[in-house]
Amino acid sequence: MPAKSNKDSLHLQSISKAEEAMASLRRNADMGPHHLNYHFTAPISWMNDPNGLIYYRGEYHMFYQIHPFSPENGPKHWGHAKSKDLVFWEHLPIALAPSEDHDMHGCFSGTAVENNGLLILIYTGNVHSPQKKQVQCIATSEDGLIFTKHPGNPVINQFPEDGTVDFRDPKVWKHEGVWYMAIGSGKAGMASALLYQSTDLFNWEYTGKMAESNGSQGKIWNCPDFFELDGKDVLLASPAVPYGVKNTRKSIYMIGKMNYENGKFTQEIDGDVDHGPDFYAPQTWIDHQGRVILIGWMDMWWNPMPTQDYGWTGAMTLPRLVTMSRNGKLLFEPVPELQTLRKNHRSLPPVKWSENHSGIFKNICGDSLEIIVEFDLQSCTAEEFGLKVRCSHDDKQKTLITYKPDLHEVTIDRQNSGTTNGERNVRNLPPRPNHTVKWHLFLDRSSIELFINDGELVMTNRIYPDPSSLGLDLFAKGGSVKVSSLDLWDLSSIW
Ligand code: FRU
């Protein structure tokens, strides 16, 4: 066993400090009424982006951005967890901690790959003062638990002429024996992914701009991700703008073709990975079955985070299976493994729903529910219809999920959902050829994930109602709508 270098010892010390801080925060922690029952969260403190998703030695590994010292944003470490089934997670020790001059303000987002049996992390070393600098670094592990930073870090020390100081979140993959790295950047108001290549993961050569915003895809790209699906190449990116300004699109996918001869990705079609306000920085696993599975940070930089009062912030979305639709767009559906959490199945026979039906769910309520409901639009006379969830007894607190058939509009209305910014999340949803609308809804204490029409559109929202607001109801206004089917389950906790 080679003696540990001074740098290795510093890294181990930084990890121990982080672990001790988390243990002490946990000691007296009451995670509070908003703590999620079946979504992944860090043991305590602040977390954001998923990092280094990899199926390694028969298990799904997930690393993620964590600030272990408080529920506030701060110098990022890499948290680590693993799962056999994408449902139940085991927390593992912190994998990376800032410990060197070039990563002192954070080990930022990146990738994990396997090479010759080693688990390798590729991440951004972040320094934000006195001068902002972002560089790319590597760490390796023989056991998938303890990571040693490469003594030659940073392996990319300077952004190229096409980039700027925003130069982060490397995505690394192998194609025909060559390693490729796409780094998120942007220049002159146009986001881009910059491409490097290497034969050994340590020496990298700049190839050029792999892809650039078409003008509506942001000024900077964070967290690029890249995978193949049904003979196409897919690039994901999380648009960003300079600090303090909101970007209008939070995470996008671009389907197209990668030309490995010239290192250019040509996008043919784009879309939003998720249409909700609390979703960012998605990444993917390619698992042993060849499935593409996506997970994202279920929060967003500038949104209210009332869970900070209970010592924790941030969560992951449910893992989502990514497939290609017949019209060449991406579909996102909850992975089937989640069905193991179902209990107490209840269903509604087909029924024509109108204003006087309200209240039928008197005996059904909850904050950890899965609901699949299908509406038939053919005979619909209602101006709007939908579901009310997390309602208080006096009906003052509630979150409304509404469809307006005339406007083809779906809305998640959080004006009365507790401590949110009260945004109404509205999206256009054209009817399907069979004139139905299908909602697959996951409700977990402080989150709503709505999968619409078998994954055509997903909306992720955080809500923070009172713990006693547990009511549920269907509603129709100004007419009736046929509810073709409704199935509902309580979902068990994963903790
Ligand atoms: C995206 C992001 C990344 C960065 C990380 C820092 O949410 O800003 O660009 O690597 O978070 O935690």
Brief account:
The protein is mainly beta and 495 residues long. The strands form 7 sheets. Strands 22, 23, 24, 29, 30, 31 and 33 form a 7-stranded antiparallel sheet that branches. It has a 5-stranded mixed sheet with strand order 4-3-2-1-19, covered by helices on one side. Strands 28-27-26-25-32 form a 5-stranded antiparallel sheet, with no helix packed on it. The structure holds beta-D-fructofuranose (FRU).
Topology readout:
Elements lengths: L5 H22 L17 E12 L2 E9 L9 E7 L6 E7 L10 E9 L2 E10 L5 E9 L6 E2 L18 E8 L2 E10 L2 E9 L6 E8 L7 E10 L2 E9 L11 E8 L4 E9 L7 E7 L5 E6 L14 E2 L6 E5 L5 E5 L7 E7 L2 E3 L14 E9 L7 E8 L6 E7 L4 E8 L7 E5 L7 E9 L2 E6 L4 E6 L8 E7 L3 E11 L4
Parallel strand pairs: 1-19
Antiparallel strand pairs: 1-2, 2-3, 3-4, 5-6, 6-7, 7-8, 9-10, 10-11, 11-12, 13-14, 14-15, 15-16, 17-18, 18-20, 20-21, 22-33, 23-33, 24-29, 24-33, 25-26, 25-32, 26-27, 27-28, 29-30, 30-31
The chain binds beta-D-fructofuranose.
Task: Give a written overview of the molecule.
It is a single chain. By secondary structure, the protein is mostly beta strands. It has 1 helix and 33 strands. The chain has one helix at 6-27; strands at 45-56, 59-67, 77-83, 90-96, 107-115, 118-127, 133-141, 148-149, 168-175, 178-187, 190-198, 205-212, 220-229, 232-240, 252-259, 264-272, 280-286, 292-297, 312-313, 320-324, 330-334, 342-348, 351-353, 368-376, 384-391, 398-404, 409-416, 424-428, 436-444, 447-452, 457-462, 471-477, 481-491. The strands form 7 sheets. Strands 22, 23, 24, 29, 30, 31 and 33 form a 7-stranded antiparallel β-sheet that branches. A hairpin with a 2-residue loop joins β10 and β11 (190-198). Beta-D-fructofuranose is lined by residues 48-49, 65, 76, 108-109, 124, 168-169, 222-223, 280-281. Beta-D-fructofuranose binds at residues 48-49, 65, 76, 108-109, 124, 168-169, 222-223, 280-281.
